[in-house]
Amino acid sequence: SPVAHALELIGVNWASALVATGVITGLTTVMLVLYYGLTRIILSMASDGLLPSFFSEVNKKTRTPIKNTVICGVVMSVLAGMLPLGILAELVNIGTLAAFVLVCGGVIVLRKTKPKMKRPFKMPFGIVLPVLGVLSCGALIAFLPVITHLRFIAWLAVGLIIYFAYSMKRS
Q: 43 burial class (0-12, 13-18, 19+ CB within 10 angstroms)?
């Protein structure tokens, strides 16, 4: 953490340790939430026929997708051991930002194509916020390194291959 390092350089070691502890706690929390979410997304995709039914199985006792949890854990551990943290962070960033762009874009499309649709909550300022979301997340994506864009395109290509080779016929 640059802040912890800066505090250490100016001799405020107690604050450096506190910030570093906060960073480690925050990273651990984010990683666990992403891990939990990933296993459930795979479960849902398999339940919808987008992935093999093997991934839609849940443990009878715990009602959790144990196979997905183990497989995802092994794959993430291997990737974490083989790739530098910066590359992984950039891929997570571009993936998350792209998801935000799609969600904001979806809100805009739904507001225009289905204005009478029942919505569970009201959003102030009409479509101004989702437009700002698309623009700000798009700008952040644009500032990522070109190699990150290429890696993201490669991951998208893998996803499209899986979709057209397997999922399209079964979902």
A: buried
**What's the burial of 76, exposed, middle or buried (CB within 10 Å: 0-12/13-18/19+)?**
middle
Q: Which two tokens stand for residue 2?
A: 């640059």
Quote the CA–CA distance of 94 and 100 in Å, as a whole number: 10
Residue 123 amino acid letter: M
CA distance linking residue 157 with residue 146, whole number of Å: 16
Q: How far apart are CA 84 and CA 88, in angstroms?
A: 7
Note whether 152 and 140 are within 8 A (CB).
no
Tens digit of each residue's pLDDT (9 = 90 or more) over 113-149: 998 888 887 878 888 999 999 999 999 999 999 999 9
